[in-house]
Write a structure and sequence with these properties.
It contains three helices and seven strands. It is α/β, with parallel strands linked by helices. Strand 3 (88-93) and strand 4 (98-105) form a beta hairpin. The longest helix is centred in the first third of the chain and has 30 residues, at 7-36.
Length: 166
């Protein structure tokens, strides 16, 4: 399955790739060169650390390039009264008798600790396209589901969340 990304996700990833290729790669190569000049490489911690950093940067570039190449581009547009991408929603969880606020984002921006949920997660997928007042069943797996009621939708459009590292 391909990752679903927005055009803004792609732009951010391309900007990170460019920065890593033009700035970080140059710094990493210079660090390796300086550390190598210090002599015996078998016991040179700086050399090993510089090589590791250089390799991590190259891995990140390859990862981002692969994500862009294999991604399915999805629209950020949604009807004014429906849950869509980058919208902040207040949900009432019937089972817990609690309200929670979430922002619906793409998978590469999701972060449960910050209440950023992926549109591909069970909760995100269930509420997409629904309206305030809708009671929605969230199917977690074959043996467990729960209900939420959409209390409000804030048509936020910002996508300040950073792209996950891996």
């Amino acid at each position: 399955m391909y990752d679903q990304l927005t055009a803004n996700d792609i732009k951010k990833m391309e900007a990170e790739i460019e920065h890593r290729k033009l700035v970080v790669r140059k710094e990493a190569l210079e660090d390796v060169k300086v550390a190598r000049a210090q002599g015996d490489l078998s016991e040179n911690f700086e050399y090993k650390a510089a090589k590791q950093f250089k390799n991590e940067n190259e891995r990140r570039i390859r990862y981002l390039e692969k994500m862009i190449k294999t991604a399915t581009i999805i629209s950020e547009d949604s009807k004014e009264d429906e849950v869509g991408m980058n919208n902040t929603v207040v949900l009432y969880f019937e089972e817990d008798d609690e309200e929670e606020t979430y922002k619906v984002v793409t998978t590469i921006r999701s972060n449960s600790l910050k209440n950023l949920i992926s549109q591909e997660s069970p909760l995100g997928a269930a509420i997409m396209g629904h309206k305030v007042g809708d009671r929605v069943q969230v199917v977690v797996n074959d043996s467990y589901s729960y209900y939420v009621v959409i209390r409000s939708i804030d048509k936020t459009t910002g996508d300040d969340e950073e792209i996950r590292k891996f």
